[in-house]
Write a structure and sequence with these properties.
By secondary structure, the protein is α/β, with parallel strands linked by helices. The protein folds into two domains: about 100 residues, 2-Layer Sandwich (Beta-Lactamase); about 210 residues, Rossmann fold (3-Layer(aba) Sandwich). A hairpin with a 5-residue loop joins strand 12 and strand 13. Helix 6 crosses helix 8, helix 8 packs antiparallel against helix 9 and helix 11 runs antiparallel to helix 12. The N and C termini lie far apart (about 50 Å).
Length: about 350
C-alpha cells in the first residue's frame, strides 16, 4: 500500500492516528483502540523508509538523519492534515501520524461548558489547556483561536511543532510559525513574538523553564496567551509550572502566575457506551481565592475550591464524569476508571456508583 492509501484509509475509518512500525502491519487508532490494517503487508524498515522519508523536505530529512526524531505537518490533498512524528525504535524507523480534521470545531461542539467561551473575550491573561497526549488539547485550542479569529480583529501568533490546524479567513490575521521551518527554537520564537505586535499568542507546548518563563512574561505584558501542558489536573498543572523553577525563584513565579492566570482546562476523552469518545473536563477559573492560593503555595486547596465554586462556572473532573454517566453517554465503570478521586465521584452519583 502507498502512504496515500493509508492516509485515505485513516480518514475513511475516522481514525485519530496511524502507526507504522517494523514487524507489524499498519495500525489505526479508532475510538481509542488500535486495530491493524488487514489488507496491508507486515512492514519492514525499508518499506517504512520508502513510505515516509519522501514526505520530508531537505531540511527535515537532515534533522531526521542527525537527531533520529522529527515532527512535521503534512497536508494531504484537500482532505485533512496530519501531525507526523518520525522516530527510531529497535534500530528501525517508525511513524506516528495524528489526523487533524480540516473542519475546526466550534467551542460549542467540543463538549466544554458554555461558560468557557468568555475566555475568547479576554484581552490579556494566561489560559492553559492540559491533559494527556491524544485527549483533544489541540482541538480545544483551535476552537478558541478560531472563535477569536471570527469575532474580532486581532493579530494572532501561533508557535507550533508542527503547525496543526490551518484557520479560515476571518476578522483576524494569523501568523503560524512552525519549529524548524519558520523558527529555530521555541525560545527565540516566543521572544520574537513580542516584537510582532501580537494580541493573542498560542504556544503549542510549554516544554521547559525558558518557554514557561517567557510565556508568563508575554501574558504579563498585556497579551492573551494560550498554551498546553501534559498534566492530569489543574492543581498538578500549577505545581508543574512552579516546580520547574529553582527554589529561590518560586516565590516570585507564584506572584506572577497568580496575577496573569485566567483559567486551566484539564480534559480527557472518555470512551462512550456507543462507539466513540466524549469530552470530560475539569475547569478552574481565576478568582481572588485562587490568586491567594497560588501566591501562598497552597495548591492542595485547589480541588476543594473547584468543588465549591460551581456558581463561578468551575467544574471538577468528577462532576463532568458524573453528568456524562447520568446522561447515559458513558458507563459508571468507565467514569470511575477515569476519575482522579473515585470517592468524590461515588458521592456525586448518590451512592449509585460501584463500591
Amino acid at each position: 500500500m502507498t502512504i496515500q492509501q493509508l492516509l485515505q484509509l485513516a480518514i475513511e475509518r475516522n481514525a485519530s492516528d496511524l502507526h507504522l512500525l517494523a514487524k507489524y502491519k499498519p495500525m489505526l487508532r479508532i475510538n481509542g483502540d488500535l486495530v491493524s490494517v488487514a489488507q496491508a503487508p507486515v512492514l519492514t524498515n525499508e518499506l517504512i523508509e520508502s513510505l515516509v522519508v519522501p514526505l520530508t523536505n531537505p531540511i527535515q530529512k537532515d534533522i531526521l538523519i542527525k537527531e533520529w526524531d522529527l515532527d512535521l505537518g503534512l497536508e494531504f490533498e484537500d482532505k485533512a492534515r496530519f501531525r507526523v512524528n518520525l522516530y527510531r525504535q529497535r534500530g528501525s524507523l517508525a511513524a506516528a501520524m495524528r489526523l487533524i480534521p480540516k473542519q475546526i470545531r466550534n467551542l460549542e461542539e467540543t463538549g466544554l461548558p458554555p461558560v468557557i467561551s468568555k475566555l475568547t473575550e479576554l484581552r490579556q491573561g494566561f489560559v492553559l489547556v492540559t491533559g494527556p497526549t491524544g485527549h483533544g488539547k489541540s482541538t480545544t485550542l483551535a476552537a478558541f483561536i478560531n472563535k477569536i479569529n471570527q469575532t474580532r480583529g486581532a493579530h494572532i501568533v501561533t508557535i507550533e511543532d508542527p503547525v496543526e490546524y490551518v484557520y479560515p479567513e476571518g476578522r483576524s490575521i494569523i501568523s503560524q510559525r512552525e519549529l524548524n521551518t519558520d523558527t529555530k527554537s521555541w525560545d527565540n520564537a516566543l521572544k520574537s513574538a513580542l516584537r510582532e505586535d501580537p494580541d493573542v499568542v498560542l504556544i503549542g507546548e510549554m516544554r521547559d523553564l525558558e518557554t514557561i518563563a517567557t510565556a508568563i512574561t508575554v501574558a504579563e505584558t498585556g497579551h492573551l496567551v494560550f498554551a498546553t501542558l501534559h498534566t492530569n489536573s489543574a492543581a498538578q498543572t500549577l505545581d508543574r509550572i512552579i516546580d520547574v523553577f529553582p527554589a529561590n525563584q518560586q516565590p516570585q513565579i507564584r506572584v506572577q502566575l497568580a496575577a496573569v492566570l485566567e483559567a486551566v482546562i484539564s480534559q480527557r476523552l472518555i470512551p462512550t457506551i456507543s462507539p466513540g469518545r466524549a469530552l470530560a473536563a475539569e475547569v478552574l477559573f481565576s478568582s481572588p481565592a485562587l490568586r491567594a492560593i497560588i501566591r501562598e503555595g497552597k495548591t492542595h486547596l485547589i480541588d476543594n475550591l473547584i468543588q465549591t465554586s460551581a456558581e463561578a462556572g468551575m467544574v471538577s473532573l468528577e462532576m463532568s464524569l458524573m453528568l456524562l454517566a447520568k446522561e447515559g453517554i458513558i458507563s459508571i465503570e468507565t467514569a470511575q476508571e477515569y476519575s482522579l478521586r473515585p470517592s468524590v465521584f461515588n458521592k456525586l452519583m448518590g451512592g449509585g456508583a460501584l463500591k
